[in-house]
Amino acid sequence: MKEEVDVSLTTPVPRDFDAVFPGENWFLYWKTSASLWQAKIQEYSDSNRIVVPINWAFHSDTGESYNFAKERPETDLKKLVDAAKSVGKEITFIVPISPAPFLPNGGLPSMLARTLSLGPSGMVYGSLDGESQLNKIYSFFDTRVYQAFCKFVGELGEYFTEAGIDSDIWGASFGMIHEPGTQKSGEYSDFFYDRSRVFDQGFARYLDAKKKEMGEDAELSGPVDEEAQKLEFHNTIQDLYLQEAMEGLSGNWEGALKFAFLGSNSEAFFKRLSGNDDSLAYSQQVMQAMVRDVVPSSILVPHRSKKGVLGKQLNDLIANSFLETKLRQDYYDDDSHITYAPLRFFEVFDYNPQIEHKSASWEHLGLLHYFSRNYRWCYSLNENTNISFDEGESLEQKIHFFHGERMNRKAFNTLLKIFMSGGKVILNRSGLKMEYLKKLESFFLENSLRVEKVNFHTVIHNIVLGDGRLIILEGDKLSDLDAGVKLTFWKKLLDTFALRHLQVSTTEGVDYFWRTRTSSPSELNYEEIRRASFYNPTSYKQKIHIKMAKNFALMKVLDEHNVAIQSSPTEQVIEMLPGGVISMDFGVYS
Amino acid sequence: MTDTESIVMIYDYQEGGESKPSAYYLKFAFDETGLIELEPMIDVYEELIQKQPESDEMPLGPFESLNFLNQFAFKVCEKSDGALVSLLSVQDYNFVMEEADSGTTLFQKFVEKGNQIQNLDHRSKSGILGKLFH
Q: Do the Cβ atoms of A274 and B107 come within 8 Å?
């Protein structure tokens, strides 16, 4: 067992290099002289892709006039792109379409930073960057901010066209993953959220406009409805920013992404006031962000806190894997990049947690608890509003979960399309409108489908069509069951899908993440290669048991640090010392 | 609870509804080393209020009056042998944040802005011997 000990006696001094490359291939061009760009980018060896957030306030103080390569060389983005190209690197730009916690005033030009945003508890948002700089978040609901943003993206788009910059641009929403042990533990919230006076004024105007259009139907029926309407208003305005960015930057536009900043939630803010970073919590948030299709970013966290397990995790899972998959949609189609994607058996559509629907929450129905024990992080959680289905998507070994509550036509049609294409679907019918129930019944009749009915804690209907399978259950009847009973329920139900997976048992604190890729020409004995990466961010010795199953073969062990393995045909046992890391590749065959 | 010098607590007043009365809730409690652990605070709450809090997560409450909240804050301070506890309303907190321009002095600003309650029994650990033999 190898163990490396840091014998450094001095406090590490933050390097200028760390400030411009704060994490996951991000480059903050305004933090260094343009004359040093090329040298610094050349020195950066972690990736060939450099992610550059565009700092709105750096190009304009007022939001009125803009400076792109006119007065200061550091505003010359064409020069930046050329500098990167000259050393064989590719720049990808991201344009914030929400407040940015790594920038002063959340990225707003100083003249526009007028109303501080208020979070759900009525408190001003603050975040500390890696140099303990306090960044406050200002409201994007201010109409002056919106007008200035339109001008900014328009000017930026024109500059890109005129300068002949062909680099990709992504719109980025920034947020946080809530701290473990809090009410919203593991959930994502964005910094666009605001309940300040400016938001309230905008919301009042929005409601007035709705009332004029819809009459009494737009009246608020109570606090739950009010919150739902506020969320709708929030989404409408957020979408306006996105649309403006898409139009203004259409020549280079690639799409929109969400980022979650480690160390930016309220609990972390108070811990970090005293210079404490909770690497254990960050480690967990990395995984929680990925299942929500949100890219975790550690750029607020100082480099000294990213040594060890967290740094390894960020490097393995994000900088060289997840981020690249998000920025290059063709990543897995390209044979020259045999790279791993997150292993996902389950696509789960859920509601926005800001509005409570207990029977329409998979968490409340015990599903996520079951996953955490048996298919840890092997799922993706999507908001019900974002339901989509790519017809090229492989449906084998994948199950889609839908709620009936607030089901709309688009979601319903997607559900049927997945089922008819041979996919597996589980529908929680609680709250499903009668019109959709009737449509389902006529669909079964028209296609002469046999509906099997089973009573097991709830009424379950099972319908088969070719490879497709649709299970309909009543979530209402599950929600009040004991946690243990819910676990048994999901185990029995999901075992019927015969998913191929290795069971892992760990002691508390160890986390792991599964990734997958297709086999290369030299690995034709296998259909698929799966990599499990284990991390022990705790200060304790931990043990992991991996139960081998038929159709799986251990191919190789890599990146071992502070670990010892005992292998047998039936089980792999790993002993991990504090800070231990290991990855294992398994070949999957028929 | 670990020993500390100053504790900052941020509270809010929540308007009640049909099912629950208006009350004060503790949103955050932290000292120079980070957040104060919730479990020992729940113990103090149960001892003082003689009932369980509404939830075993933050925010902690309800506190019927500011007087109860002050007593609770003082007891937490006493248990962790803190020198003082400073209670800020969410409005006070927002005021400090609005004025602040640096993260390094923020903690001290929270301490100064709040309603301070001193723990006169606090054993000073400022000297090296105090720190070693405490």
A: yes
